[in-house]
Amino acid sequence: MKTSKASSATTLAKIYIKNRMLLQGLALCAALGITLPGMAQPLQQGSGQAISSFTTPRETGQAFPTVDVYKSPQCGCCKSWAEHLQKNGFTVILHDVDDVPAARKKLGMPNRFGSCHTAKIGQYLVEGHVPAADIKKLLKKNPKAIGLAVPAMPPGSPGMESEHPIPYDTLLIGVNGNAKVFAHH
After folding, report:
1. What distance in Å separates the CA atoms of residue 51 and residue 55, rounded to the nearest whole number?
2. Hey, which residues does 171 pair with through a beta bridge?
3. Average pLDDT, the chain
4. Are 180 and 150 in contact (CB under 8 A)?
5. Exposure check for the chain: N or C terminus, fewer CB within 10 A?
6. Domain spanning 42-184 has what CATH number?
7. In a 10 Å sphere around its CB, with 0-12 CB exposed, 13-18 middle and 19+ buried, how is residue 67 labelled?
8. What is the dihedral of CA 158, 127, 114, 84, to 10 degrees?
9. Structural domain boundaries of the chain?
10. In what order do the strands lie in the sheet containing 147-150?
11. Distance from C-alpha of 120 to C-alpha of 92, rounded to nearest angstrom
């Protein structure tokens, strides 16, 4: 009887170790799947280095201004939004800040439109997960405005991809601080 219990315990221990190794291997693969694509075009935060090596959009041949993003060091969706901009022809520089609302205030974006990051592109501010197409449209139209905002963090916006996206608006923030709908998504 002791031999059968010992044999069963040994078998269970082997199964446990194999399953644990399998789970660790899967976790490693998942981590590499997230990390390796970013390594092809490495993000360098707060170093003054851009995350994109190209700044000329294919459609116009004109260079976009660099996008400076002020974000919390812990925010992953901000990095995803920056990658969205990079894929759309922008050069992006990430700046980690301890107090995003203070950075937003210093840059001049009204706090009521706040999100998890504030960006500066040329003369404009961009608050939150604004699609790259909206930023391109803003730069092309060149209105007198503070900039664009997607307040909060709506699921389905760039960097906030979701299986359950919700409709949201990109707002144009006027120089008087008032907002109007710039684009529906």
Report:
1. 11
2. 149, 181
3. 78
4. no
5. N
6. 3.40.30
7. buried
8. 20
9. 1-40, 42-184
10. 92-96, 67-71, 117-121, 124-128, 147-150, 169-173, 179-184
11. 10
**For tokens 């990079």, what's the residue?**
86
User: How many Å separate Cα 131 from the centre of its chain?
Assistant: 11
Confidence (pTM): 0.69
Instruction: Report CA-CA distances (Å) from 122 to 67, 90, 117, 147, 178.
Output: 8, 12, 17, 10, 20
pLDDT surpasses 60 at 129: yes
Residue showing tokens 């694509």: 37
Query: Given a cut of 80, is residue 142 above it in pLDDT?
Result: yes
Q: H helices of 41-118, where?
A: 76-87, 100-107
Amino acid at 98: D
18 or 113, which is more confident: 113
Query: How many Cβ atoms are within 10 Å of 59's Cβ, its own excluded?
Result: 8
Higher pLDDT, 55 or 11: 11
Q: Structure tokens of 172? A: 């144009």
* Residues in the chain, total: 185
What DSSP character marks residue 98?
A: S
Integer Cα distance of 45 and 40 in angstroms: 15
Task: Write down the residue that tokens 């997960």 correspond to.
Answer: 129
What mean pLDDT is predicted for residues 39-54?
A: 41
Task: Give tens-digit pLDDT for 75-117.
Answer: 889 999 999 999 999 999 999 999 999 999 999 999 999 999 9
